[in-house]
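Help! Submission page says 'invalid entity' but I think these are all valid:
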Amino acid sequence: MSSDTVDRILKSAESQARTGGYNAFSFREIAKDIGIKSSSIHYHFPTKADLATELTKRYTEKFTQHLEMIDVGGKDLISKLSDYADLFYEALRTDQKMCLCGLFAAEADALPDEVKAQTQKFFKTNISWLEDLLTKHDVPSPESEAMKLLANMEGAMLLAKAFESEKHFKGAIDLSKFE
Amino acid sequence: MSSDTVDRILKSAESQARTGGYNAFSFREIAKDIGIKSSSIHYHFPTKADLATELTKRYTEKFTQHLEMIDVGGKDLISKLSDYADLFYEALRTDQKMCLCGLFAAEADALPDEVKAQTQKFFKTNISWLEDLLTKHDVPSPESEAMKLLANMEGAMLLAKAFESEKHFKGAIDLSKFE
DNA sequence: CAACATCTATCTTTAGATAGATAGAAACTT
DNA sequence: AAGTTTCTATCTATCTAAAGATAGATGTTG
């Protein structure tokens, strides 16, 4: 499933969801946005949960692709972590929007189960990647450090939104431990 | 304004808002929850924005009260910061819910202006308090470190929600720099 | 009585969802 | 090749539920 219409639906949905969360995007708004009827969206995604699940899945896949472009091996841990942080920063700077999965995580208890599960995958993927990186660079307690780093990324995004300035993201990132 | 009904309205609204954000609480749900009619809520809070503004204001005030119970002076910075983190942890553990202002910050662009402004106050209050604490303990770059600490708190809450376990909060908190 | 707080009743808008019609492309049949 | 059927993607029209909001009646109390 990957027609042009489907892509446009998901793009519009992402924009709305990353602005106000799960309850902030609707079939009608997406339809109006891309110039079709809301019933046409139901043709591609029977329910809202279906749409959100696919949205979260693609968001994670795209993010993972970028992750995998950072060579985990090689020396210079700090520059790898800096590249990692830049993935979040770019998501923030380009779209002026929060991380989709960060927002979904915050409202996890209000999400349909499939969407929640898909959101968790984003976090597990990030943790795994970080653990791998830290392990390869002989950092002690890689699992624990991975959690702390991911919390730092999502928290920094949240602060940037709170203060309405992506500059605050940079100010809230803390990689000093690995310098 | 502080009748029993108002308190019950706000308590119910807080529970719903901290679960799914601004669009996840409604006059009808609150009314049903506390056994009155939705029109009665409008009597106390003409608009939803009014309700959310007061909610955010009280949330911040309550949090600030707890903050002020931590003596900023005295020695042992790390135990003060640990107490600080415990404020967030208790909010998470007691209610099994995200920080109200953390969630609101994530969806800031979808909030009425007054609510957004009130949400910012929560963050500014926290930053100020942390700056003060760090300054009193001669920590270099107190403003920058305050941002990093607050990002760590909110990010840790977010991860706890993502993984549906408050244990993950503790695992994501990083105060090692100040030990 | 007057205020305060609540109620009933209702309005408009929006939400997710579904049934059924239609137009065009593709595939199959003779 | 012509005709028929099927599939795909969209549309129109409509349903039901829920949302925020408001007007005006009712009861309660100092």
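Support: the input was valid. A stray whitespace character was the problem, and the output above is from the cleaned input. DSSP finds nine helices and no strands in chain A.
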